[in-house]
Specification:
This protein is of the alpha/beta class. Among the domains are: about 65-190, Rossmann fold (3-Layer(aba) Sandwich), CATH 3.40.50.720; about 240-290, no CATH class; about 310-435, Rossmann fold (3-Layer(aba) Sandwich); about 465-490, no CATH class. It is about 35% helix and about 15% strand. The chain has helices at about 45, 50-65, 80-90, 105-110, 125-130, 150-155, 175-180, 200, 215-230, 235-240, 250-255, 280-285, 300-305, 320-330, 345-355, 385-395, 410-420, 435-445, 465-480, and strands at about 15, 35, 70-75, 95-100, 115, 135-140, 160-165, 185-190, 240-245, 265-270, 315-320, 340, 360, 375-380, 400-405, 425-430. Helix 2 packs across helix 3 (about 80-90) and helix 2 crosses helix 9.
């Protein structure tokens, strides 16, 4: 955690949300208002439900139940079951409806007073008997279907001036006659709560005043975690499986199968990441997972020692292509003496020698390693040649500037690392954007901003020549065998 963030300290356990930033990764940069502290007594596997619980909690807040209200919950998937549990905790009486008989026991465990399985029971009859003929006070639609049946069934079973809250991505055609005659109110529940999809709240950190917006998405996170700490959400009842993260693909494949019976599946990392408060069961399962190899790091002092104390006296260049001729050498000319220019074709090598003032030209890179005078090496060849040339130059204890990429495989990277450890030379990779004026200005501005940072780059190259666009369109529509006419001036 950022030490300048006043809400958190290094080592705090937190739960986070946000499809734009909450991923499975070793490190995450998260906006402050999308993170909530995990209280003592809540295990990590329970805290993993925070986002889903917040979605259900926002639906309950939109429903606005009062003590003793009868509420119909259509759909007993994971979110529907959490809605059932939170309604029961709020003092409402819940009738749950689903298509799958296997959901009955889960719904009972989450607090429903009555469970109706469509196809086995008649919903209209069950509602009439359960509400003494009045109808339910509210209905929460937690289905995901293109059928309008859940909306029609809820409208039929709700009392006059009742409320329907739509949570799932479901079809909602509102029949005028019944909605008008009953004067029904329809609300949609949007994700975790107020603040969601508002960039100034989520990314700008501008919280809503609590006196005006009591429950924001971040406060919903906190409320859910407190309910977990008090044992008021029976997450164990709906957690049908806790699987190691390495089995994630198989888990998702199982969930996609028709008739899948899993409800809540928690993916767990290795035991070192489970936290001291995790159960022994988690540790036992996670201990079987393969551990990643330790990442080799170099002390900062070691890296600093390789900085040059005196400038190099000469520069040899391997590769005289377009990028080297137009972008690299013009900036280096008159800044450092040029030694040998190497290119596969003698004509290009001699041309660059004469244009930029190199001492000699060659067609074989071995020529630059014959001399005894130390010289730095600039490598601007085709990508597959970078790694072999870097290793050869390191063996000669040269200081190297190599255009990106440094290499093309992990094996080559390991070999370069080993060669660098034995060499008195150094390696720098040419990610030249780091020196651009705009990047330098951006780094200076962001240096004074605490917390995680995100930068978005948009490049506007200018208006394209209409004739150029016409030529490209002709090329793309006629296929690879078409001839392409070079537009004037290109």
């Amino acid at each position: 955690m950022d030490p300048l963030n006043t809400r958190f300290r290094a080592g705090d356990r937190v739960a986070c949300g946000g499809t734009e930033c909450a991923f499975h990764a070793e490190y995450l940069a998260l906006p402050d208002l999308l993170v909530a502290p995990v209280p003592a007594g809540v295990e990590n596997w329970q805290a993993a439900y925070t986002t889903l619980c917040a979605i259900a909690l926002q639906a309950v807040r939109q429903t606005g139940p009062q003590l003793g209200d009868r509420v119909l919950v259509m759909g007993q998937g994971l979110v529907g079951l959490l809605v059932t549990s939170l309604l029961e905790a709020a003092g409402a009486r819940v009738m749950a409806v689903d298509l799958m008989p296997s959901r009955r026991s889960f719904s009972r465990a989450m607090g429903s007073e009555k469970v109706v399985i469509l196809g086995e029971q008649n919903l209209s009859d069950e509602l009439r008997a359960w509400t003494d003929g009045y109808g339910v006070d509210a209905a929460v639609i937690c289905t995901a279907t293109q059928s309008n049946t859940p909306i029609e069934q809820a409208a039929e079973g709700i009392r006059d001036r009742g409320r329907i809250v739509i949570v799932g991505n479901t079809r909602a055609d509102l029949g005028w006659k019944i909605f008008y005659e009953k004067e029904l109110e329809v609300r949609y529940s949007r994700s975790y709560g107020p603040g969601r999809y508002d960039p100034s709240y989520e990314w700008g950190g501008n919280d809503y005043p609590i006196g005006y917006v009591r429950w924001t998405e971040q406060r919903n996170f906190q409320a859910c975690l407190e309910l977990m700490a008090k044992g008021q959400i029976n997450l164990a009842a709906i957690t049908t499986r806790r699987a190691p993260f390495k089995d994630a693909l198989a888990v998702y494949q199982d969930l996609m199968q028709e008739g899948a019976k899993d409800i809540g599946v928690v993916l767990e990392y290795e035991s070192a990441e489970c936290g001291a408060r995790e159960s022994a069961e988690c540790g036992a399962r996670s201990a079987e997972l393969p551990r990643p190899a330790a990442r080799q790091t170099h002390p900062e002092s070691e890296i600093r020692d390789q900085h040059l104390t005196t400038p190099v006296q000469r520069l040899d260049v391997i590769g005289a292509g377009n990028f080297a001729r137009t972008m690299l050498l013009p900036h280096l000319k008159n800044e450092i003496p040029f030694g040998t220019i190497v290119n596969r074709t003698a004509l290009s090598a001699n041309h660059v020698r004469d244009k930029f003032g190199f001492e000699t030209a060659a067609t074989d890179s071995a020529e630059i390693f014959k001399g005894t005078e130390p010289a730095a090496v600039l490598i601007a060849t085709r990508h597959h040649l970078h790694a072999p040339l870097v290793k050869r130059a390191l063996a000669d204890h040269r200081h190297i500037f190599v255009e990106k990429p440094l290499c093309l495989s992990r094996q080559e990277l390991a070999e370069i690392d080993a060669a660098r450890a034995k060499s008195r030379g150094s390696v720098m990779v040419g990610f030249n954007r780091r020196f651009a004026p705009a990047i330098a200005d951006l780094k200076e501005i962001l240096a004074s901003v605490p917390g995680p940072k995100t930068a978005s780059f948009r490049v506007m190259p200018g208006k394209l020549d209409p004739q150029l666009l016409t030529s490209f369109a002709s090329f793309s529509t006629r296929g690879l065998c078409a001839s392409w006419r070079r537009p004037p001036g290109l």
